[in-house]
Write a structure and sequence with these properties.
mainly beta; Jelly Rolls; 2 domains; 6-stranded mixed β-sheet; 15 strands; about 15% helix; elongated
Length: about 280
């Protein structure tokens, strides 16, 4: 028969209590963390006849440029809205999502993204509202649009520059399909080719001169446009020269007629112009 000492029993009781407390902590922490991922309440169903849905943000706050850089429960959170019925039930109506904030300083800034399904689903047409400052962010869902329809939508709110002291308020309501918004729609993202600017240095070409800004210079050579400083090129597109691709360029006492080489800088040259000096 084994003798169990009182000290051994005390140790076991202490360890058991520790595991129990740790388990309770993990359960509570997991529940709390899960709640942080969603708005309060986390979801709702909107009927064509109402009533309006309302919720508030729960994220800690901070700053995030957009959805790709935000962390759920930290600087973004989600409300799931379900538009009930079929598109026919919404005839003449649309669902309006509004995000606002009562920050008197005007510094809080929230951005709104609405996806079909969950946050991994496609953005609905017109589903982004990211105006600067604190005006309300508004997205309208048109069920008559085949890319919208009815069903579940994820209202993803990004804390562009905001914190929990001034949480946003969200609402979803049925409004007339002809109702306009108080805000201009966000400009579509520019995915086309970008316009760039480049400085072209004067070519290192020696030319013979008889005069310069420093005075007479008989039997002297100097680099083309060596006193150019920081010149700019003005182009008159109605000029016959411009029509043929030639641009006038003034440099000190020189007038240069320039025709740019479009293959540069692929050809490795840093001065990409064919220049004739007058």
């Amino acid at each position: 028969m084994k003798n169990i000492s009182s000290s051994s029993m005390t140790a076991r009781a202490t360890i058991g209590a520790l595991f129990f407390v740790t388990g309770i902590f993990l359960i509570v922490f997991g529940f709390f963390a899960a709640r942080l991922h969603s708005a309060m309440p986390s979801s709702g169903t909107l009927n064509p006849g109402g009533p309006q849905l309302n919720w508030v943000g729960t994220a800690v706050g901070g700053g995030s440029l957009d959805e790709s850089t935000c962390v759920e429960g930290v600087n973004c959170d989600t409300f799931v809205v379900t538009l009930s019925g079929t598109p026919t039930n919404w005839s003449g109506l649309k669902a309006r999502i509004v995000i606002s904030c009562a920050d008197p300083s005007g510094l809080s800034d929230y951005d709104l993204y609405v996806h079909k399904g969950d946050n991994s689903g496609p953005l609905v047409p017109g589903g982004v509202s990211a105006h600067g400052g604190t005006p309300p962010e508004i997205v309208d869902l048109d069920p008559s649009n085949p890319d919208v329809g009815t069903g579940q939508f994820s209202v993803h709110v990004v804390y562009f520059s905001a914190f929990a002291g001034f949480q946003y308020s969200g609402s979803a309501s049925a409004v007339s399909a002809s109702a306009g918004t108080a805000l201009a729609p966000s400009a579509p993202q520019d995915r086309g080719p970008k316009i760039g600017f480049q400085n072209f240095e004067a070519p290192g070409t020696l030319v013979q001169v008889t005069d310069s800004s420093q005075g007479p210079a008989v039997h002297t050579v100097e680099y083309t446009a060596h006193d150019a400083g920081e010149p700019s090129i003005g182009v008159n597109w109605n000029s016959p020269n411009s029509a043929s691709g030639v641009t006038n360029f003034q440099s000190d006492l020189q007038t240069l007629f320039i025709k740019f080489d479009d293959s540069c800088p692929a050809n490795g040259q840093s001065a990409c112009a064919n220049i004739a000096v007058c």
